[in-house]
Design goal:
14% strand; disordered C terminus; 287 residues; alpha+beta; disordered N terminus
């Protein structure tokens, strides 16, 4: 096999290729009567394989709730310690709410949070019912773990956060004899000047909700689901047990996205796999 001078454009291509990290030569094959491309060094393909490996290990940011707050005016930009919390003290080490916000949850009877009334039937909630309402409010406003269940369509809200069945059942038992005039507290009130008023009759909670499951899955729309395992604890003292839950669920979702590459979180895995399928045979061919 002997070498001949290359056409100018071939020389330009080879010069460009050297800058990309691999060495290529066009050699004239006398037996075949044509130029043949010979790859002598392929660092570029090694780089691609390194990229493939790194992409396969990228964790999905969408699955990591720990260390972030829900966006919007109801939450801080990022969690930080709050030393003067009047309520929600279980979240003081990494809080998404300010100490100032918690003051309105600290002194019963609590009639409203901001402009939102908890007592549209003009009757204060019982002490035990109010305590459960406060715990739910503290989770939504103060917990950095709430971000894990961020609603993709309304990013300052949550969706399908799993609440432990025992908490839901206790919440229903505590509030069943209290009064309300709405089943879904997001959609079933009449809003006037930013204040929620009744548009349905005042009845006991037990008339609007059948049980703890119904209460948890209805009062705040699709925010919560009733679960017996792998669920959020609302009533706790530090350390926060929900940190471990979010870490566990995050790892499970990350693994699932790699095994079943669908949706946004698995795009990198699918792309990396495609690259590997294309480049591995090329490496075998060139070497």
């Amino acid at each position: 096999m002997s070498s001949l001078a290359l056409p100018a454009r071939f020389a330009e291509i080879l010069e460009e290729d050297e800058h990309k990290g691999y060495k290529a030569d066009f050699i004239f094959d006398c037996d075949k009567g044509r130029f043949v491309l010979k790859i002598r060094e392929t660092m570029y393909t090694i780089t691609v394989l390194a990229l493939v490996g790194s992409l396969l290990t990228i964790p999905s940011a969408a699955h990591k709730g720990h260390g972030k707050c829900l966006p919007g005016a109801k939450h801080k930009e990022s969690p930080s310690a709050e030393e003067s919390m009047a309520a929600c003290k279980s979240y003081k080490d990494a809080s998404c709410c300010t100490s100032d916000f918690t003051r309105q949850l600290a002194t019963p009877p609590i009639k409203k949070v901001g402009n939102f009334s908890w007592t549209p039937c003009n009757k204060t909630l019982s002490t035990k019912c109010e305590a459960f309402m406060v715990m739910v409010e503290c989770f939504y406003r103060c917990s950095h773990n709430a971000y894990f269940w961020k609603n993709p369509y309304f990013t300052s809200a949550i969706t399908k956060a799993p609440v432990c069945s025992g908490f839901c059942d206790g919440w229903f038992d505590a509030c069943k004899d209290d009064l309300t005039c709405a089943k879904n507290w997001i959609t079933d009130f009449k809003m006037e000047a930013g204040v929620n008023n009744c548009k349905q009759p005042c009845k006991n909670f037990s008339d609007y909700y059948a049980n703890g499951k119904d209460l948890c899955e209805s009062m705040w729309g699709a925010s919560f689901v009733y679960k017996k395992t792998n669920c959020l604890q609302m009533n706790f003292t530090s350390p926060n047990p929900n940190d471990a839950l979010v870490e566990k669920l995050s790892k499970e979702k990350q693994f699932s996205s790699k095994v079943h590459p669908t949706g946004e979180s698995s795009g990198a895995v699918f792309f990396a796999t495609s690259l590997a399928i294309v480049w591995i045979p090329l490496i075998a061919f060139f070497y």
